[in-house]
Amino acid sequence: MSNPATLSTNVALDAVKTDITLDGPHGPRPKPFFTPRRIILYSILFVACLYYLFPLYVMITTSFKTMPEIRFGNIFAPPIEFTGEAWSKAWSSACTGLTCQGLSPGFWNSIKILIPSVIISTAVAAVNGYGLVNWKFKGSEIFFAVLIFGSFIPYQVMLYPLVMLTREMGIFGTIPAVIMVHTIFGMPILTLLFRNYFASLPPELFKAARVDGAGFWRIFFEVMLPMSLPIVVVALILQVTGIWNDFLFGVVFAGTQNLPMTVQLNNIVNSAQGTPEYNVNMAATMLTGLVPLIVYFVSGRLFVRGVAAGAVKG
Amino acid sequence: MIDNTKTSVSIRNLSLSFGSVQVLQEMNLDVKYGEFIVLLGPSGCGKSTLLNCIAGLLDVTGGQIYISGKNVTWEEPKDRGIGMVFQSYALYPQMTVRKNLSFGLRVAGLPREEIDKRVKRASEMLQIEPLLDRKPANLSGGQRQRVAIGRALVRDVDVFLFDEPLSNLDAKLRADLRVEIKRLHQRLENTMIYVTHDQIEAMTLADRIAIMRDGIIQQLDTPHEIYNRPVNLFVAGFIGSPAMNFIKGDLKSRTFVADGVTLPIDHYAFQPGNEALNANAILGVRPEHVLVGEAANAVPVNFESEIEIVEPMGSDTIAWARIGTQEFTFRADAELNLEPGQKIRLGFDPARASVFDAASGERI
Amino acid sequence: MTDASASERQESGTARYVRQLFTRNISAKIAATPMIVTVLVIFIGCTLWTIYYSFTNSRLLPTGTFVGLDQYTRLFGTSRWNVSVWNLIWYGVFSLSFTLVIGFLLAVLMDQKIRFESAFRTIMLYPFALSFIVTGLVWQWIMNPTLGLQGTMRNLGFDWFTFDWIARSDMVIYALLIAGLWQGTGFMMVLMLAGLRGVDEEIWKASRVDGIPTWRTYLFIVLPMMRGVLVTAVVLAGSGIVRLYDLVVALTRGGPGISSEVPAKYVYDYMFTAGNIGQGLAASTMMLLTVMIIIIPWAYLEFGGRGKKS
User: Fold this and answer.
1) pLDDT range class, residue A151, cuts 50, 70, 90
2) Which of A18-24's residues contact partners 24+ apart within 8 Å by CB, and which partners?
């Protein structure tokens, strides 16, 4: 009670008491929603969104218009005579430089390339990442460093030797060649992704499994893999969009019979003879963009995580 | 030479270095069957590293490890007859408690009935039977650590290794599980090697404590000896809370002189051969061995001092005073109502004190 | 005793070495083969092969004889290559600065505790999910002088409105830029936003208590703290720029004339269309050199310094 600190606080409290009234600010601070700052902020974002959305709008509206309507020359206008003709033509009968089968063969080629490429590249990278974290061997870190460094080498540098290599292997101009190239060039980023993920898991888990007597594959399949579902999904998203959108490897390695959808699309739009049919072009473009767009809209946050995770180095 | 077949775990000249950093240096340690050894030391002293070497999770750079008489230096962890409990529990998150317990047994290819039997026995012993079909995410920290202990238990091994198993738990749970581990040890009677930085865990659990620093065992002894007769300044300072008082001064024919204050320490039990030593020395006195007020007059060393700071702890009070110009902490009964500025008589029995050589830090 | 155990240790030391080399963790070594082969054969082997054969006069097949720097002399004597290089430099400078600035500004706007944040983000990022071919073709249509944006605006009565960059050799590079920014800025925004969110909350509390204006905090406190993200952003954007190929193929096919050619397209055309492999390889080696000039200082700063510290 003779504590001087307590004493002075009491005195101060007494002095303040006289000023305390019930008027003036009380309760939560008011937060007006429409401050000038907020209005400017939302306006800028809104304009930015127009820029991002405009091409999608144009793509969709043009694809549902008829050619006469397009020649009228109003890119903003929604279709008056709403027709899906361009879509069906783009899918089944639009002409590339050579044939007139539309995009459908390209779609199926892309699927045939996509599924094995995604599975193989993800599986290889997952094993790589796991090995790099838990089963280091002499030089493993150096191999990884070169791998990451290699991801910055322009593809053009390795393109011709790879053509020769696949030719030697007898797979040039076939789908296995494309799968191989996707696995190789997907390896750096995916390995990095898996390595960082596995490194973030508590190392004791691996130690405990070793004390329990499990070996390389057993720990991978029974302990690590079941825990890595989130990162597997991220890797799948990354690879599905990446491989679907590829143009260069498809055009070089797939061979004329197996050209993926992006290459066929480019051929339809850029090498077709006769008057250009913009509605068919846009329908074809839409069709090609549909797969990654669906992946994007369905995966939402995971896609964001995927691209960010792919970008942030470890 | 010690017969390797008669000890549970023997470490012979073990050393480990990462590049140029020596983590363990020419270490020797013999653990008897059924003994509870605690490896204690500050972080970075190499205690966890040593445990990982014993487990076979780290390859050693030199030396040998024997477990139950067998040289296991190059064996895989699973072939060493050890079970291990980790600080972070390291439960496999996607497996139920039952699967977690039986994973090692399934890997080893044991028959189903045997697995079930062992899981049942372990879960009974640890009272985790109701949890068997839950996932680790649905367990509390204490429950998780019980499961982690159970995973070592089902392996039916000779040696248990604990790597700071209680550090992630709150104070109360830690005390509960400490008792649980002690009970388990008394019941199973197998060898346990336990790493911790918590001296209370070490004092309460250990048969013998190995105090480590910079990859070297400083002292290996019973908790009682370590507390009462620390071999050097490091051990003396590391064990005990609040820390031991170190008073700098000179030792001259069985008297200790610090800042002009003369302290007769005739009763001190010198190490054999050191009785007549004259040297720069440090006198170590545990705060809880200091007598206050009237009682101080009954012991050989006593002096008058002024209290500077008081820290009431509830059951007792820690106070700061001075001997000469040097800080001196002591623990007093809370009922004494000590106040800063108060003059008080303090004293201690040199027989309970420690004297160290100021140059080498070794006990005199 | 000491002698015996010492010799035993030595003997088994050799045995151990052999064992470790071949049998220890054998599964781990087998599992690492794809990575090791990729690194040695593809990333190192193929690159060296390309560099070596860029000094030959190979045409249809890589069988030519050693001609020293001939291919490089010819390369820099070719106007199409020089145009390509200048295009890449201009595109690179603009693209890099605009993506970084716009990405950062958008990220700051998104960081103002706005409503519908995820809707805004979804809209800004979706182009990143699309291929450059799709991007190029859409913008090609929008930029169509007669029926695209320009035609529409003129039809609506704005006779002065001009947006014909795609058909003008002096402006076509900005057409590429608009499409490129449309595709990539959303991603930069996401990256920067992650960087902004990664900054310690207490920095904001401290600057608020100290009364520092928000814009100053962003510019002088938060931005320097985001160094890691910024470096990543520059490296990613940079390596993307050097690879610029699909977008050009889809949007302009290098035209009008050769006014929007880029090095990656030069390489492809000489290797696979013109049948002049030596020339293509020399061009690709120059691309490699450019990337190395960007990457090596960065790698040195990022990892060289860290290596010294640890």
Assistant:
1) confident
2) none
Distance CA A174, CA A158 (A): 18
- CA dihedral (B117, B118, B119, B123) in degrees, to 10, reads 110
Bond into C256 cis (ω within 30): yes
A:C CB pairs within 8 Å? 258
pLDDT of residue C24: 66
Question: Looking at residue A7, what is its pLDDT?
Answer: 45
Helices and strands, number each (H, E), in chain C: 17, 0
A62 within a domain of the structure (yes/no): yes
DSSP 8-class letter at B294: G
Domain count for chain B, please give it: 2
Whether A233 and A298 share a structural domain: yes
**Where do we find the tokens 């020419």?**
B26
| Nearest CB partner across the interface for C25, out of A151, A216, A307 | A216
- For A270-305, how does the pLDDT look when each residue is reduced to its tens digit (9 = 90+)? 876 777 888 889 999 999 999 999 988 888 778 877
- Edge-to-edge strand ranges of the sheet holding B326-333: B309-312, B316-323, B326-333
Interchain proximity A289–C131, CB inside 8 Å: yes
Cis peptide before A203 (omega within 30 of 0): no
**Residue C278: closest C-alpha in chain A:** A160
Q: C175 to chain A: which residues are within 8 Å by CB?
A: none
* Residues of the domain holding B47: 4-234
Total number of domains constituting chain A: 2
Tokens standing for residue B243: 């820390």
Q: Are both A192 and A117 inside the same structural domain?
A: yes
For residue A73, what are the domain limits? 36-83
ipTM: 0.84
Report how far residue B344's alpha carbon sits from residue C229's, in angstroms, rounded to the nearest whole number: 62
CA torsion through residues B304, B307, B311, B316, sign:
positive
Whether the CB-CB separation of A250 and A234 falls below 8 Å is answered with: no
- Are A205 and B92 in contact (CB < 8 Å)? yes
- CA–CA dist C106, C93 (Å, integer): 20
Minimal Cβ distance to A52: which of C127, C134, C299: C127
Statement to judge: residues A71 and A115 lie in one domain: no
Residues of C in contact with A246 (CB under 8 A): 131
Can you tell me whether residue B264 is helix, strand or coil? Answer: strand
Burial B203-226 (b: 16+ CB within 10 A, else e): bebbebbbbbbebebbbbbebeeb
Average pLDDT over residues B179-206: 91
Which residue's entry shows tokens 């101060």?
A12
Q: How far apart are CA B152 and CA B191, in angstroms?
A: 12
Q: Provide the 3-class DSSP secondary structure of residue C268.
A: helix
CATH class entry, domain C77-309: mainly alpha
Q: Assign B234 to helix, strand or coil.
A: helix
Across the interface, whether the CB atoms of A143 and C35 are under 8 A apart is answered yes
Asked if residue A1 belongs to a domain, the reply is no
Chain A residues 12-71 with CB within 8 Å of chain C: 41-42, 44-45, 48-49, 51-56, 58-59, 62, 70-71
Handedness of CA A129, A131, A135, A139 (dihedral sign): negative
Tokens of A226: 């079941």
What letter would DSSP give residue C145? T
Q: Check if A81 contacts B (Cβ < 8 Å).
A: no
Q: How far apart are CA C53 and CA C281, in angstroms?
A: 7
Domain locations along chain C: 2-53, 77-309
